[in-house]
Amino acid sequence: MADKLMRAHGSYITINLATRRLGFHEGGRLVNTYPVGVGKPSTPTPTGSYSVREKIMYPGGALGTRWMGLSVPGGNYGIHGTNNPPSIGGYVSNGCIRMYNQDVEELFPRVMIGTAVEISAGTVQSKTESLTGAAQGGQRKHIVQAGESLWEIAQKYGKSLESLITVNLIANPDVIYPGQVLIIPA
């Protein structure tokens, strides 16, 4: 998909919801990545292929210093700055992609109307999985679905909540995201 986007526009943006990172690609290479805040589980950021349809400097308020509206059907979603910098890196928005104001100000002049934006659920590997390349000793993987809680997943597999938290190095058990890959201990 990325090659197709690059050929169509010369530059494109990728957003990985699991890692909460935005990548800006230009001329066949990744130019920079930025930490972002994305939609909370109750109002998730929509995945899919979109484009930048409008750009506004100084939109004000919670939108920070820049706004780049996306072509998401039936919604008003965008990439924008924030007046709440501690929210960057979290699942916090009503579906928009938040950036630090200095980062969105750096990106803004490089993005043209029509620039392709690919938003994916992505995956987050646990430390155990990344060290071994796979689940160990009979462990299974579970891909989080919209609306699931960690407690429900633990119940589904007959595991304790604590074991899921430990194996997956989860800092906040109330924050899991659709598309996130969890290791289910043996």
UniProtKB/TrEMBL annotation:
Classification via Gene3D superfamilies: L,D-transpeptidase catalytic domain-like (2.40.440.10), LysM domain (3.10.350.10)
Family annotation (CDD domains): LysM (cd00118), YkuD_like (cd16913)
Residues of the LysM domain: 140-184
EC number(s) on file: 2.-.-.-
Pathway assigned in UniProt: Cell wall biogenesis; peptidoglycan biosynthesis
One term under GO cellular component: extracellular region
InterPro entries: LD-transpeptidase, LD_TPept_cat_dom, LysM, LysM_dom_sf, Transpep_catalytic_dom
GO BP terms: cell wall organization; peptidoglycan-protein cross-linking; regulation of cell shape
A GO term for molecular function: glycosyltransferase activity
Assigned keywords, A-Z: Cell shape, Cell wall biogenesis/degradation, Glycosyltransferase, Hydrolase, Peptidoglycan synthesis, Transferase
Active site positions, chain numbering: H80, C96
Top EC class, one word: transferase
Domain of life where this protein originates: Bacteria
Pfam families on file: LysM, YkuD
Cross-referenced SMART domains: LysM
Residue ranges occupied by any L,D-TPase catalytic domain in the UniProt entry: 11-120
Family: Belongs to the YkuD family.
Identification of the protein by name: Putative L,D-transpeptidase YkuD
Recorded name of the encoding gene: ykuD_2
